[in-house]
Amino acid sequence: MSSYLNDVVRVYLNELVDWENYFRWVKGAGVDVDAEREALHQILETAADICQSLEAEARAGWDQEARLEDGRVVYPPHIERAYNALKEVGLVSCGVREEYGGYGLPSLIIQLILQMIARADAGLMTMLGLQAGVAEDIQEYASEELKREYLPRFASGEVMGAMDLTEPEAGSDLGAITTRATEEGNRCFVDGQKIFITNGGCEVHLVLARDDDTFEASKGTTRGLSLYLVPRTLPSGDPNGVEVTRLEEKLGIHGSPTAAMKFEHAEGFRLGEKGEGFKAMLALMNNARLGVAAQGIGIAEAALSTALRYARERVQFGVPIAEQPLMKDKLARMTLTLEGSRALLYRACSLTDRNRAIEAAFRRTPADSDEFSEAERVEMEAERIRNLTRIRLLTPLAKYMATEAADSITRDAIQIHGGLGFMAESEVGKLHSDAIITTIYEGTSEIQVSFALKEIGKGALSVVFESLELELKAFDEPELRPFADKVLNGMRLILDSAGSLVADFSYALMSAQSLAEVVSSVIAGAELLGQARADPARIDLAASWIDRKMVDLEGRCQRIKEGSADRLNRCENIIALIE
Ligand SMILES: Cc1cc2nc3c(=O)[nH]c(=O)nc-3n(C[C@H](O)[C@H](O)[C@H](O)COP(=O)(O)OP(=O)(O)OC[C@H]3O[C@@H](n4cnc5c(N)ncnc54)[C@H](O)[C@@H]3O)c2cc1C
After folding, report:
1. Per residue in 443-483, pLDDT tens?
2. Domain of residue 258, CATH code
3. How far is the CA of 443 from the centre of ligand 1 (A)?
4. Domain range enclosing 216
5. Domain count, the chain
């Protein structure tokens, strides 16, 4: 098995995911679940082999930027070759459903593939991750005609997609968007400028624009925004008013083109309802956030395995540095950080798949079909709604945890390499430069924890904790039971402290990062215990995560509980010392 296919993948393929129901709901009662599962395994093996084979060339060509030549984006040769290798086996847009020519893979498998691509080449992953999100948004919101026109071309890799949100004055705050969409008869045209657009030179742009007729009234809000599919080439074959005006030079992910775009009377085709574009874009962004979390995991895996290899080879004071107690602790902490974030991400993906399977079952069977009884349908719908709440909380947490993990693990990997880590050609240095952006795009870490807080404010914590409690109480193995109790205690401490956040929203916002940390640590704790039950080799991992994180949680919860908005004044006084 390729080293790109971590052992834990087997645990998810064989034990932790309810594939029986997944395939029964997606494909019908007659499905051969073992064959389907084996097919997933084969796809992952293929992806792992290809990605591993791309790594050396990707590292060697790491600093090659995409170029702009006569308005067209030219990719570095290693990106071109890697894209074609994945395209050949149908792995560039594998969430597209079979009816539109794709594999319709589960989210968990898509993220595993993206994770392996990121491990080999984070720049390539940025391009392909967006590609998957754009195709899935078209699949969800476009007319049947547009789906038939574009999805098969996404599945085959013939076209690429971009998500065009950011403008010079509208970054985290998409309510500030001023790109304008004007209706002329039954056609729509888009005018405006976007910046930092990944894949800017591609064929299909999903552009978030403000509708002309409500432009002034909706300014400064996310109301009045619609989502448009704006192709570079119109269905007639004529060029559309879409131009790449500049490519950026960046600190990392050099192979991924980041473009400034101009839309000039560019014809667009609306996806979803008029004025509901932000909602449609959030669906895309949620997929993309899971993708960026997977990117973080892939980069962190690459850095950790490189650091471990080096630490075992480098001898100082007569022993490999990996044998030094401080180094052992550092390497173990890096592994815990990686595995805890991975656990959170895979849980978010599994929940996403559970819901997609329920939705597929409803799509596939008419309400009066006897495949599901009325009672079963009601139960499935209730689960779907509960899961939706859980996914809305877990997605920003997974993105936050995995990308911050990538940042810290790659930084620690540089430290482990000593002076060599700081050299221009250092592999872990390149990985660190790539990791930084993951905490920024698709919503910065600050925005992710604010989103998580918002979901908690809407009641998500009780829904998540209700199922977590049932799950944790079911651990009756003597080696796991005490740890399940510790996590249950952690959940009680969180609930006890969260009450202090209700009184003042600015204090709640100030505490959002701490809250995200503690909530993530109990959810990941439960998931790691599940992994440990399936694979005893992971018991120490789960135990150590829970021991360390619950101590940290206690301190954080106490601090949240004892504080108030007065702390903001203190912050201001401290900052004033610098001015
Ligand atoms: C390489 C690259 C590729 C990208 N690809 C795309 C793409 O394909 N499509 C696209 O549309 N965009 C893309 N972006 C843009 C990216 O999504 C934005 O840069 C990002 O959302 C942050 O926006 P900003 O840069 O304007 O920062 P700002 O929003 O100005 O934020 C600056 C800082 O302030 C913090 N901040 C902002 N608001 C708050 C708040 N309410 N509370 C606390 N802190 C806050 C942020 O967390 C951040 O630390 C890309 C960017 C880069 C660098």
Report:
1. 999 999 999 999 999 999 999 999 999 999 999 999 999 99
2. 2.40.110.20
3. 6
4. 161-276
5. 2
